[in-house]
């Protein structure tokens, strides 16, 4: 039988200056750097900008539907340093920076409730 591990994890507090929706805000620049090379040149070509925005909206919708489908299901997380953990997925915060999970099975024990930082997760899988 797995032994619960008493660990307290607190989420990072909100940025007092902005919510990060302003593209010029420090938070947006730090967290939402563009990964599509067209973005740099998109301001000069409105067609490319519209295509990029459409692609991003489709990917965002797919990701959010995936999070919704994961709710209350066993999820396997592959993390850095070849660490694999399993937990029951609960929710994600609004910025998708943390996942709230229950019954987190780690190599050192079981945590009843925990937050997993998304930046520590390489991938995740679950059965539909």
TrEMBL record:
Gene3D superfamilies attached to this UniProt entry: 2.30.30.100
Residue intervals of the SUZ-C domain: 1-25
Stretch list, region Disordered: 1-23
Entry-linked InterPro entries: SMN_gemin7, SUZ-C
One Pfam family in the UniProt entry: Gemin7
Coiled-coil positions: none
CDD domains: Gemin7 (cd11677)
Protein name per Swiss-Prot or TrEMBL: SUZ-C domain-containing protein
Source organism: Xenotaenia resolanae
